[in-house]
Amino acid sequence: MTTQPAEPLKLDLGIGTQPDIAKAAVLAxxxxxxxxxxxxxxxxxxxxxxxxxxxxxSVEVGTGVAIAFARTPMTLASSAWTLQRMSGGxxxxxxxxxxxxxxxxxxxxxxxSPAARMREFVAATRAIWDAWQTAxxxxxxxxxxxxxxxxxxxxxxxxxxxxxxxxxxxxxxxxAATAGAVGDGVICHPFSTAAYVTERITPxxxxxxxxxxxxxxxxxxxxxxxxxxxxxxGRTEAEYAANRSGICERLAFYGSTPAYRAVLEHHGWGALxxxxxxxxxxxxxKEMGRLIDDDVLGAxxxxxxxxxxxxxxxxxxxxxxxxxxxxxxxxxxxxDLALAVLEGVRS
Length: 347
Fold this sequence. Notes:
There is one protein chain. By secondary structure, this protein is α/β, with parallel strands linked by helices. The protein contains 14 helices and 11 strands. The strands form 2 sheets. An 8-stranded parallel β-barrel has the order 1-2-3-4-7-8-9-11, surrounded by 8 helices. β7, α6 and β8 (185-188) form a beta-alpha-beta unit.
């Protein structure tokens, strides 16, 4: 039996750290990037993406990710609908749940049953979009959200291209199943390995998607499996060394967090989590990075002394694992280095 060759990787580029979003988006479009991403870290991602959309004509604009539970389905629906209209149908909405402490203590919003809540959040958002697109009465009644009022003054009306796709960030199997059941894609955390995605995430997503295929309102879009990949490279020895050190520290930070322990355990590195967690409780952050040895680094990151080689290694490792990728550098604002790596993917 012959197998179909995997589709070429689509390339995404994070531009959220750029001081000039418009310039970064135009540059990404000129380099053939498929989608530019802005995360919700120190800024709301929707205004920068609106700027990016207004200065480009073809590159997609996506949240990578927006925090779902910091909003209601109505507020998310409105922001996403506006971006979809402004971009001429080029929006992609990545959603993440965040963790309980941030939702309750930073955003002051309720937290419970994150996978079930996310499933309902997406269903409610789509119900709102459907009401705007079809002029049907809005009547969504769920366990966590209820939306039953939509006056003409607040109805933005239909969009020719229809609603944007929704992708859901997942680390564990429950949220991965949610992404498969109600999402148009799953966003894998950068603290993932190709083996973990292939063996733990993808089967769950496919099973949930197959089970939901016959349900009313099930997505018919091609499903995306996307991820950000830690990349260690540089144009000089000093840049390479700084990038390597920074990525090791990032890996140590994530590895110390209980939410990501399962990824380490999948590779038999559960003891590393315990060591990192203890150091984090003592605030010994710099020491933590030294615990990331070559085997761990090589599993989580693409490591190459030059950007072109890094891009080829990324392509070889993740083609057939992801449908689209972005890269994570220690210096996230280094747009030129990121573009050089992504050009290597296509070489």
